[in-house]
Write a structure and sequence with these properties.
- About 35% of the residues are buried.
- The chain is of the alpha/beta class.
- Helix 3 crosses helix 7 and helix 7 packs antiparallel against helix 8.
- Helices cover about 45% and strands about 25% of the residues.
Length: about 260
């Protein structure tokens, strides 16, 4: 074969390989750009979703909920922490109903079983009917929740054994601190059922967030858009602090960032 012809064929083949390699590289680059364009806030799993909610402020979550749902999804000022705490997790709901003077040894067994069925990232949400002065939980229940990895508890009712709960560092929000018991006064009325806790609807699996500003409840189906908006609000607000200090004007900062 003529040397010049052989060189031409080899050159053509090499050029073809180079073109294929370029196409593959460009294609990969497009895929990488598309992957990078995916919102950083999108949670890949339930545990990651909860981890991200733990990093945003409840005030921002509450504002985001109001914008997205048009509803108040935060609990009242009566819901107070037994110590300063911040947590987020999936609601595990329990209801207690009044049953004054009952002698049934099994009256509250379901309440205890509900605790044992929870796990990491659970938040125990209990409604004690008319129970502001009745302790819905105490040290024994708190110990069980802590051992199972619960994020915390929210009690529409009282809490007791507060010194011990503080000692083990298990966070509880409740509407009162009282020494009373629910034994012989209440009966278990259901677990993993829809509740209205301190005026807010809570369904099993909803996301409960709590910090020094209070407690809010995020419907599970709207968790991602609420999280994304809350993250944006947090970013703007935290960025505004330095601008307010620099300009010595909150009016100018609000105008610059478009939020209050």
């Amino acid at each position: 074969m003529d040397k010049s012809l052989r060189f031409t064929k080899q050159h053509t083949f090499a050029a073809s390989l180079a073109a294929v390699a370029l196409i593959i590289t460009l294609s990969s680059g497009v895929r990488m750009v598309r992957a990078q364009a995916t919102p950083a806030t999108a949670a890949s799993s339930d545990s990651e979703l909860i981890a991200q909610f733990r990093r945003v402020e409840v005030a921002s979550v509450s504002d985001a909920l109001e914008q997205i749902t048009g509803k108040r999804m935060y609990m009242s000022h009566h819901m107070q922490p037994i110590f300063t705490a911040k947590f987020a997790g999936f609601a595990r709901t329990v209801q207690l109903k009044k049953d004054e003077g009952n002698k049934d040894p099994e009256a509250l067994t379901g309440m205890l079983e509900a605790i044992d069925q929870g796990s990491t990232d659970s938040v125990y949400v209990m409604v004690v009917e008319g129970g502001e002065d009745i302790a819905g939980m105490g040290g024994l229940m708190g110990t069980a929740m802590a051992a199972r990895g619960y994020a915390g508890a929210v009690i529409d009712g009282g809490v007791r054994d507060v010194a011990y709960l503080r000692k083990i560092g298990f966070p509880v929000f409740a509407t009162g601190i009282v020494p009373s018991t629910s034994v012989h006064h209440y009966r278990f009325a259901g677990a993993q059922i829809p509740l209205v806790c301190n005026g807010v609807s809570v369904n099993p699996g909803d996301i409960v967030v709590a910090d020094s500003d209070g407690v809010a409840v995020v419907p599970r189906a709207q968790a991602q858009p609420v999280l994304t908006l809350a993250q944006q609000m947090d970013f703007k607000e935290h960025s505004m602090y330095a601008v307010i200090e620099q300009l010595k004007s909150i009016v100018a900062a609000v105008k610059k960032f478009g939020r209050l």
